[in-house]
Design a protein that fits this description.
Blueprint (H helix, E strand, L loop, with lengths): L1 E9 L8 H9 L2 E8 L6 E9 L1 H13 L3 E4 L2 E5 L9 H5 L5 E3 L6 E3 L9 H5 L5 E5 L2
Antiparallel strand pairs: 1-3, 1-4, 2-3, 5-8, 6-7
The structure holds iron/sulfur cluster (2 copies).
């Protein structure tokens, strides 16, 4: 059995879908909601602790992703080294969720962590290795 704390980010069209029902019924996951900010028709955020087999947790998170629900496990995040970044924009071209984008006025890179899907595509795309994944317990 594995326990994982994760933040789930719901787009407006998904906040009224029965995601937690599927966690139990389809993936046999026991969950504990640690924090909830969900309103119908608006972007929502659920902080949960999931308990289940490693395979079932992985499949449940894939299920979430396939329904447009982003997630961020507590043991991993994407970090950008602002000192190394030269705001070239290369990472924005591969970012599937719009978490990385250029500020239209300053042309500086913006990172909206709440939209990050942790796909790590930006790490490979950065020519100066200014993006990395940070693992923590
Ligand atoms: S990990 Fe993926 S979703 Fe997150 S910022 Fe990088 S490319 Fe975008
Ligand atoms: S690809 Fe690297 S250097 Fe270019 S904007 Fe993204 S983080 Fe900055």
């Amino acid at each position: 059995m594995k326990k994982l704390k994760v933040i789930l980010y719901f787009p407006p069209e998904s906040t009224d879908k029965p995601f937690t029902y599927h966690l139990v019924k389809d993936f046999d996951i026991v969950f504990n909601i640690l924090q909830a900010e969900v309103q119908p028709g608006k972007r929502g955020r659920l902080t949960m602790e999931l308990q289940g087999s490693e395979k079932n947790i992985e499949e449940a998170l894939e299920f979430a992703k396939s329904h447009g629900i982003g997630y961020r496990p507590f043991n991993k995040n994407i970090v950008r080294n602002q000192g190394e970044c030269m705001d070239c924009g290369a990472c924005t071209a591969v970012c599937p969720s719009g978490a990385l984008y250029m500020d239209k006025k300053s042309w500086e890179l913006i990172f909206d962590e709440s939209k990050c899907l942790l796909c790590e595509l930006c790490i490979k795309a950065c020519p100066v290795k200014a993006i990395d994944v940070n693992m923590f317990v």
